[in-house]
Specification:
This protein has twelve helices and no strands. It is mainly α. The longest helix is centred in the N-terminal third of the chain and has 30 residues, at 2-31.
């Protein structure tokens, strides 16, 4: 019973993380034109570290063993340095809808990576759940796929590469998250990635553009740092500490659905049939891969 509760909590945390991540896509699209991908990543994860590190210190969480520092630092560079560059660069070349669809390859990539490394069994039920959820994303984004800027395929490929970095991070980080705890691990790994982004962005003169930021841009940066960074990736690490990487990764299919619903609530955008069908498919896929498969590894 305890394992079942932990599994459900992990999946719910992952779904909340992905839902918040959907709003971060909109904030990124809004502010990325006023700066560059490196500098935006430095702001986003820099603010996230400033928010998480004091919490870690107050909780007196454990620090990695000296022998584990290279691995933790490498994971920080992989995800909190490589991912934001690819993610932000993608959204500079393609639409939010196409980017979200490309990012929905994450559960498939995670499932394959986990199976290849012997960390997860590749089951028929789990595979079916992943494919159904990905199909739900495609249906939900049907309307947004009609128009694409020139060269959008470059952005699509960059987003698939970003999904691959996230898949590898999800699989490789799980043992460290279980040892250090989700807050301490996220703060430490994010700190390494943020430091690298700050150094590179400063060397390129990227922070000069911040002098032209208005109130709206700074609010977007603050939102990305606190909610789109610290909270999103703490919840992701929390989920990884309680369930398997694929069952966490499949929650990313909630991302574009949440963005569509948020648009309907805040912007009076109509919820069309494809969003409803997509939502049903996504939830069905998550159920098949998680709740319906809780007896499987």
């Amino acid at each position: 019973m305890g394992a079942m509760v932990a599994e459900i909590l992990g999946v719910l945390a992952a779904m909340l993380s992905s839902g918040l991540g959907g709003t971060a896509v909109g904030a990124t699209r809004y502010v990325v034109g006023a700066t560059d991908p490196l500098t935006l990543g430095a702001f986003r994860f820099g603010v996230g570290v400033v928010f998480l590190l004091p919490v870690t210190m107050l909780r007196r969480g454990p620090w990695p063993a000296r022998s584990d520092w290279p691995a933790v630092a490498g994971l920080g560079l992989l995800f909190f340095f490589g991912f934001p560059i690819l993610f932000n660069a993608s959204l500079a070349h393609t639409t939010a809808a196409r980017g979200a669809l490309a990012l929905s390859t994450l559960p498939l990539l995670t499932m394959v990576a986990g199976a290849a490394m012997g960390m997860e069994a590749l089951t028929l039920r789990k595979t079916g759940g992943v494919l159904i959820a990905m199909g739900g994303v495609a249906v939900a984004l049907l309307a947004g796929m009609a128009h694409a800027p020139s060269g959008a395929w470059q952005g699509d490929l960059l987003m698939v590469a970003a999904a691959l970095t996230m898949a590898l991070y999800s699989v490789w980080s799980r043992p460290f998250i279980r040892t250090l705890g989700p807050i301490a691990f996220t703060a430490q790994a994010m700190g390494v990635g943020a430091a690298a982004l700050v150094v590179v962005a400063a060397a390129r003169g990227g922070f000069a553009a911040a002098g032209d930021f208005g109130t709206a841009q700074w609010l977007a940066v603050g939102y990305l740092g606190i909610f789109g960074s610290a909270l999103v990736f703490f919840l992701w690490a929390f989920a990884l500490s309680r369930t398997t990487p694929t069952r966490v990764a499949i929650s990313v299919t909630v991302n574009p659905i949440a963005a569509s619903i948020l648009g309907a609530v805040l912007l009076d955008e109509p919820i069309r049939w494809n969003v409803v069908v997509g939502l049903v498919a996504v939830l069905t896929g998550i159920w098949l891969a998680t709740i319906g498969a809780r007896q499987q590894p």
